[in-house]
Request: fold
Amino acid sequence: MLDPSSSEEESDELLDEERRDALLAAGGGSSPRSLPPPPRDPRGREGGAGRAASPSPSVLSEGREEQERLQREEREKRLRLQLYVFIARCIAHPFNAKQPTDMARRQQKLNKQQLQTLKERFQAFLNGETQIVADEAFCNAVRSYYEVFLKSDRVARMVHSGGCSANDFRDVFKKNIEKRVRSLPEIDGLSKETVLSSWLAKYDAIYRGEEDFCKQPNRMALSAVSELILSKEQLYEMFQQILGIKKLEHQLIYNACQLDNADEQAAQIRRELDGRLQLAEQMARERKFPKFITREMENMYIEELRSSVNLLMANLESLPVSKGGPEFKLQKLKRSQNSAFLDIGDENEVQLSKSDVVLSFTLEIVIMEVQGLKSVAPNRIVYCTMEVEGGEKLQTDQAEASRPQWGTQGDFTTTHPRPVVKVKLFTESTGVLALEDKELGRVVLYPTSNSSKSPDLHKMIVPKNSQDSDLKIKLAVRMDKPPHMKHCGYLYALGQKVWKRWKKRYFVLVQVSQYTFAMCSYREKKSEPQELMQLEGYTVDYTAPHTGLQGGRMFFNAVKEGDTVIFASDDEQDRILWVQAMYRATGQSYKPVPASQAQKMNPKGGDVSADISPLYTDRGQKHGMEEFISANPCKFDHAFLFQLLQRQTLDHRLNDSYSCLGWFSPGQVFVLDEYCARYGVRGCHRHLCYLNELIEHSENGSVIDPTLLHYSFAFCASHVHGNRPDGIGTVSVEEKERFEEIKDRLSSLLENQISHFRYCFPFGRPEGALKATLSLLERVLMKDIATPIPAEEVKKVVRKCLEKAALINYTRLTEYAKIEEAMNQATPARKLEEVLHLAELCIEVLQQNEEHHSEGREAFAWWPELLAEHAEKFLSLYSVDMDSALEAQPQDSWDSFPLFQLLNNSLRNDTFLCNGKFHKHLQEIFVPMVIRYIDLMESSIAQSIHRGLEQESWQPVKSITNSLPNVALPKVPSLPLNLPQMPSFTTPTWMTSMYESTNGSATSEDLFWKLDALQMFVFDLHWPEPEFAHHLEQRLKLMATDMIEACVKRTRIAFEVKLQKTNKSTDLRIPSSLCTMFNVLVDAKKQTAKLCILEGGQEQQYHSKIDDLVEETVKEIISLLVSKVVSVLEGVLSKLSRYDEGTFFSSLVSFTVKAAAKYVDVPKPGMDLADTYIMFVRQNQDILREKVNEEMYIEKLFDQWYSGSMKVICMWLADRLDLQLHIYQLKTLIKIVKKTYRDFRLQGVMEGTLNSKTYDTVHSRLTVEEATVSVTDAGGLQGITMKDSDEEEG
Reply:
């Protein structure tokens, strides 16, 4: 390679060439996680001492391995040091990149200890060991969160991988409670947003406990601020940790590289860029190019190299001369073409004018005191004035001549590099005619930027005849050094074009811009230089003394083709400073070395230059850093170095305290960007290395953001396919091959992640990762960036992944549930229990998939469809275990119905899974079981009705119905099988009233309960297939109709039989069994509407009119009962018939009563009969009221009873229309009629019924009879009357 300077020594070139060759060779075969060994040094320097003979092969092998390990560690250390030198220069003087401020803020990651502490805190809350007050709903939400999320092994793995933050935990809880709160009923005055906020605040309180996770006092300070904009010191510290650089090594590098000297860093950049340009020129001449996909790209590659260097030069040129310094006051150079200025060559140089290098200086003059003032009285007033010639004049405060002290500072601005400062001492004139104060002395100073800035005594010039011969003034003059003045001082100079006379002049090295420097000579009180020389293209070096020149002892020169300028200073130190400043300004690669040092390094004489370059700094030489500091960056393989740097930085980033997901921090991005730009690392290489590292970390279990993978992959794809994402149009064969390799690896990784989506993205974390993964997969499957891949191809790949996912998820689920062990050795009941538990887990998995992984629909609209196919595949695997367990169950065992209910309730509410493959399979299994179950239940109920009614005692069953919900269905002895027991059902709504009153018989209650429980059980099945569900409903309704019809008919017969066995006297009391039968019919009427009516109201079309049957039966038993009680009244009236007028019995009774009344009190005949009947009516009314539960039917019964009674009395009176009633008949009838009327009115019989025509006829006849008796026998009725005003008791 050609060096930037023709004076480069051969030995330095050989050393650098060896180092570069080593790195190039290392870059080709490096392992992913270790630094590569460079090739063996032919001179044996790395091998150390010569190999000694070994007594045994094993000892020799161990010694060689240890030696190789030490050599490898030494190489790695040297490589890291060299890399740190380059990084430190990027940090010290960046000119391409800035720290980004728009990157997403990363959250702190959780570790295992924090997760365990978090579990303990939530467990303490659930155990009631905290002071946090919470309602039941919040406790249930926390319990679900604790059991499902915190205790999940998937969360533990995610925490272990470093991809989980406290914010992820809070987001999962928030999503969980949002669903719960939305399902809560509305509460007046309390919004659901308020409830959410309150629950989140309580969650935060539980999460924090006694200490806040967000406050980690023991964390490193650098890690705490790594997400912020970092200072240079913080960046140095970060990369010392990344590369394992010691603090002492950093300090040595910092000082030797002069990282705090912006001029030195800018000069280093200029030398590097110049070297890169010459390297490109050499490559173009020798035609040694990387292998590109087409030969046309070779010339394009050279142009790209030149363009990139020119861009860097423009970036450097755009920087201010001294960052952070005073405002740059030099005039801007006007250039028509920036590229012309940046090209090397005399023909394109921009000539500076004298006005371009005008400087601006600030002077501070501080007057302290005056000494030796004797000519003025002590009480006289004195003061000083100060001025910079050509500017304003300032004055100090006044002081007494006895104490001439001030400490006054004056600030001046001037453009003169060699200003003249005048300070004068005055005393106030006391004369009346004096116009000016008297001058006592003056001093004239010529300060420069190099002058002493400390206060000094200066002898003042006094007027003639003054007594103050030893007058002195103490003052300080401080003249600043502008940022663009790089050096100044007095030199002798002689040149061919400028400074053509050898004499001493005042020189200033001025930096006009980053690439433009000028050597200017100034006279006193002049702003513009007398002469100037641009340093572009010159090379500065030390020279031997020129004997023909008088003045100056230490010589150096600046040489350029066609021109040589000789300089000389008065001392060695001044010469060294001047040469160093000019060396930085010229941008030359050769570094001058004083002859004295060269003599020390080569005391025997000979060619000194061969050994000078590596050893010019004593400090660096002492600590072994000079090799790394003086290394030429252009001779290193920066692509390999950057790969190493990026790898180490990513490892450090993934191990810090933030959940970065592979994203670099702003400071790391800044340094990597600057390194790539400064040292020419191609963007495609950078992203390929990044992708390789990210994929490797992801394969090893780290959580990597797929959006980050997508960004780097899209960049590389655009580059390889010629879209120039960074302006680079050349594509090397290596880049294309590596891209194809990365593409294959990335495709495999993404397919694996989708196949393990429950474990790679647990609970939807990181947020949006699944969506980004699917989008990236689509991008990876594209053959090029312009042709979109057909949706069906992507769908096919994703479908295949989800099929694998179903097997993976189910396998892990069965391992978690340990289902294999249970299924192999368990009893049928145990197998069913395990399968039921496994079904719960499967449903939970599917619900979590829907809840946490449905974001895929944002990437592809068909994602829900494939997720449903995945669920079907998942359930098909479960169906194998389910079928096996169900086949092991004994015949006519009904314990498996809860399994159907559990699965069906989950599937029927899912749009995609309802009536899907598994759902239909489930129905096919259970259809025969349901039909068999209903058949057996029908037989059981029919036999229970038959046998129950035959043995029925018709006693009320209040005590039985209180515990009916817990009573198992009875077994029918005639059926040799286990009758089905109800899996679960709710208490029928009609059973609420039975706790307050008696009801039907045991058989009827049992019937209604069985029918209701059976219908509720079938309803709770929620059979998904509409036709079969309708068939079941219809069959049960018709079954209920048949059963109730049979029960009603049998009850009607039993009622009639029982009623016939009762007597017809007034001793008749309606038995409770008849009331129970009545109640059975009443309940049958009520249950018909619930158990027998189809939703369409079509029951009547399929079966007998059960309502009409019940109604007719009720009417019949009411008629029978009324006939029975009316027959009692007929018996009473038949007894009264004995007193009919004209009968023998009537005359006999009348005579006997009258005769006996003369001697004793004879009871009133007929009143016992009336009282007995009235008691009969009242007691039977009370029995019916108490024991019959239907008010409407009681009212009908009483209406008919009353009407029948009045009709019988009316007919009895009509038969005696021509006869006068006996006094006793009249009294009895009046009492019976009046009491009957009153009692039935009290029982609620309507006025229309009470005051019927029959009653009016009876009332009229009895009133007439009463009037007749009152005329013929005034005391016969003894106060009994039909009038309403009577006060008769009873």
